[in-house]
Amino acid sequence: MHASVVAHPNIALVKYWGKRDSRLNLPAAGSLSLTLGPVATRTSLTFGAEEDSLELNGVAVPAAKRLRVATLLDRVRDLVALEQGPAARAALGGARILSTNDFPTAAGLASSSSGFAALALAATEAAGLHLSLPQLSALAREGSGSAARSLFGGFARMHAGTRADGTDAFAEPLFDEHHWDLRVVIAVTVEGEKEVASTDGMNLTERTSPYYPAWIETVEPDVQSAMTAIAARDFDHLARIAEASALRMHASAIAADPGVLYWRGATVEVIHEVRRLRAGGLPVFFTIDAGPHVKVFTPADEVSAVVRALEATPGVLRTIVTTPAAGAHLVHG
Ligand code: 2P0
Q: Among 45-54, 108-117, 265-274, 307-316, which stretch is predicted with the lowest mean pLDDT?
């Protein structure tokens, strides 16, 4: 009836931006990511409560702001009814959830990826369900598309799938966290939550951006190329693919009506600084999610030079150094 989980956020190298089905949260195309620590979500969940409740970073989250959490918990209860019968479902009762992020929530730092990966694992374990990894990944996906990838350590690939019920829309592990000793330096440019939630931004892009179909067409070829680059630890090749994927995703969003623009001035300054560093011979590339921060990849032995340069870039408030991390896992507590 109880489980505690640690999950790490992930950063997409080939981006997810668009859905083929909103109700089941099915992506329109695949994606490819790297799971990052030490930043983490820690979630403990206990069934047997009178009603569902969620405390995030010590603050109670009202029911209207946790609809996706409620949906995921109901899905878990339905699975219990299916496996163990209606009495087992009733015996579960409500779930008391305590969750903390040791990095900013809803600020374009992928808190929903670690949050829903942690929740899916904690809820299924506490309920005594034994799902396969694809089933667990598909369950996390219903909470948040990027969460399907955070169940796995290292590099993970999300499949868009083609089935209407979404059972083939899940992530799979590609290479674990020991495959490639990279660092990802997060250049934090603005504190606070972002203005347009990812889901709203991608839905508006799909509905109104003339560039959306062109963006979607780039994704699967980029996933294939990125897998080849990562297998060979070919930094320059991965740099080209990752920067192109991020810029094309943002270009499609900027072309929506009204335009979805996550960047701040400092975001652009960092892009230029990364290009300047690379022109000077430093192996480095950037990617940007649905927020103003820039994530900068570099081999481990170059990280000090990259941190120094980013912290000296106008508008950068601070940096967070992250490393490839393990997938979501159970802990005691
Ligand atoms: C990604 N992002 O691949 C992309 C790149 C943001 C930019 O996945 O609607 O919060 O909950 O499935 O997972 C953010 O979107 O979206 C995201 P939903 P999610 O990491």
A: 108-117
How many whole angstroms separate alpha carbon 326 and alpha carbon 118? 13
Give yes or no: residues 108 and 143 share one domain: yes
Bridge partners for 12 per DSSP:
33
Whether residue 54 has pLDDT greater than 80: yes
What is the residue with the minimal CA distance to atom 18 of ligand 1?
Answer: 144
Residue 333 lies in a domain: no
Look at residue 107 in the predicted model and tell me its pLDDT. Answer: 56
Q: 3-state class of 239 per DSSP? A: helix
Within-domain flag for 329: no
Check if 126 has its Cβ closer than 6 Å to any atom of ligand 1.
no
Give the tokens for residue 51: 């009603």
Helix 235-254 with 198-208: angle, nearest 10 deg: 70
Query: Which residue has a Cα nearest atom 11 of ligand 1?
Result: 144
How far, in Å, is the centroid of ligand 1 from the Cα of 111?
10
Instruction: Give the separation between CA 13 and CA 1, rounded to whole angstroms.
Output: 37
Task: State the average pLDDT over residues 119-133.
Answer: 96
